[in-house]
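Field reference: sequence -> structure
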Amino acid sequence: MKKRIKNILTKNWFFLILLGIGIFFRLYRLEEFITFLGDQGRDAIIIKRIITFEHFPALGPVSSVGQVFLGPFFYYFMAPFLALFKLDPVGLAFGSFFYSTIGLILAYFILKKIDPKIANLFLVLTTFSWILIHNARFSWNPNLLPYFSFFTLYFMSLFFEKNLIFPFLAGMFFSFSTQLHYLAFLLTPTLILFFLINYKKILKEPLLFIKKISFFIFAFLIFYLPLILFDLKHQFLNIKNFIKLFTHQEIIKSTSYHQRFQETLTNFFNFTFNLKINYFLSFTFFILLFFYFLKKKFFYKKPLFQLIFLSFFVFIFSFSFLNSFRHYHYYNTVYLNFFVILAVFFADFFSINLLTKIFVFIFLIFFINQNQLNYPFKHQKGNFQTKIAQKIAKSIIDNNPKMPYQIVPIPFTEMDGHIRYYLEIMGKRPLSEESSQEGEELYILCYEKECDVLNHPQWQIAAFKNKKIAKIWKVDRVTIYKIIHGR
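Structure field:
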């Protein structure tokens, strides 16, 4: 037994060392730097109500543009960790760490079966990537997308194998991916191109292909069912909003495609390498990778590499059609896939001669150094967002709010979900944000230097009759006004 363990450790020493480093980076000072703001608080409330059997949502998070709802998968997937940590929201961050770490381990061993050198280079890139570390340290629906996108493509790469479970799993992971972020739908052209490239296999057994694609679609629809049922019940509200997103809200806009392509490409490389790279260098590297893969023979022999290659280039071209901000998390669909592309490219480059070996080592050192500059835990002082939200909530409870009561942030761009979460688990749930019911008291959270709380136009404030300030106090950077009805 000891000999066997020693043998495993000897064979996997590089993987185990990098895994340990990756775990350390993802957990070190986690509670100090956890992101727990409005979005995370909103999700925590919904997940808390799932694990207390109060409410089982059919809808997931709503998109920041167009009010398009995602599926509810993310909430149920994270629920065990909030329960395990006894409603402490740090549990949700740990859940994000756990799933992303498992995803990286599985992706590594999948690649190792193909080529150990590629797997090791992939492991280095993903271990030290600031984006993957950042995503693993807090709970948010797009954060798990890199792994679900990868496994969608992995199981799709096994589509032409005999086992029908693979198309089913591909459809399941694709359904989950699109529920994490709607930009995962940009994988669709990749899947279509994959079938076109492999048309001979389809023509060889067309009936089997129909059977397999039916399994894929069935799995996708089964795991999307809650959202489908919601749309059927509400006259296809979500589908209408999704269509409106592309028609009335000009998400595809009149600015030139070339301009959006430049922005899409340069932002992606800037985020990935944590470095300001101009368009010329970005485009040169992009074209180099493009033609490199087209010329490689294994591209045609390895379905997984076909899909990963297509997913990255198709995503960049497709995303360039859309008029939206290029936030770092909008690229979550392809980060992991791009690291596979880099690993394949550098594994091949590494094998040429001594000079190229030195170049690859220099690149990896440079990559690690640039990424470590953006590690959140490097700051001397933590932000303690969970503690601050808890402190604000406790200060409201200490003022004995008369039920029912409402809380409102100023300006309206601020969110209060993280404070509402703590108020709820402390047993003083406020009225919902959408509630038109007039509360007995109103607590205004002012994030500005000065707030004219009695004359503010925000609808919950304006609707509160005979306003009178009963008390003012400050917690952290928030000034809190207790408003009551005057006589």
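Note: The chain has a mean pLDDT of 91.
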